[in-house]
Amino acid sequence: VLIAIGRDACTRNIGLQTIGVKINEKNGKVPVNDEEQTNVPYVYAIGDILEGKLELTPVAIQAGRLLAQRLYGGSSKKCDYINVPTTVFTPLEYGCCGYPEEKAIDQYGEQNIEVYHTLFWPLEWTVPGRDNNTCYAKIICNKQDNNRVIGLHILGPNAGEVTQGFAAAIKCGLTKELLDETIGIHPTCAEVFTTMNITKSSGQDITQKGC
């Protein structure tokens, strides 16, 4: 049984209407611009109450830190809400950073992206004899920008640890060529990102015969 109760944005009873701050009446979320500024120029909002943004504590902390630096430290850095590493800590973890495939297509056009993917079999699963090809990894590349990696997804053991490491590389402009040039650590799950050579568009078989 999976229960997803969600979160409520408790913004209706804090006086926002008094100063004219607009909220989404359906969910209480607050629309802001790319600097977390509401429709009232001197009022800013950060964290889980933002309309269309991620409900993650580290995102709120980063956004708050950057906002303080912009307001009082002369900085111009804005929070990156796209390249955020995220993990779902289910028994088989799922990790991602950047765009999902559907949003990448909407943003860049299907003809401008290339998707590399593979199934894989973690070494620690070979001893207990767990099912092969249960784990999955995928990267989404922007062909118009030197095959820059704009999305990374992994379903497998320790996905959170893997995703956290690659998130820094994505922030640095990771490309498919750089992944290909990276020597993998064998036998790790993360190694799979350095050996991908099958595109989704090719329709080729992505099953693996060993770890």
TrEMBL record:
GO biological process terms held by the UniProt record: cell redox homeostasis; cellular response to oxidative stress; glutathione metabolic process
One Gene Ontology molecular-function label: flavin adenine dinucleotide binding
SUPFAM superfamilies attached to this UniProt entry: FAD/NAD(P)-binding domain (SSF51905), FAD/NAD-linked reductases, dimerisation (C-terminal) domain (SSF55424)
Protein name: TRXR1 reductase
GO cellular component: cytosol; mitochondrion
Keywords, alphabetical: Disulfide bond, FAD, Flavoprotein, NADP, Oxidoreductase, Redox-active center
Entries under Gene3D superfamilies matching the protein: 3.30.390.30, FAD/NAD(P)-binding domain (3.50.50.60)
Cofactor requirements of the protein: FAD
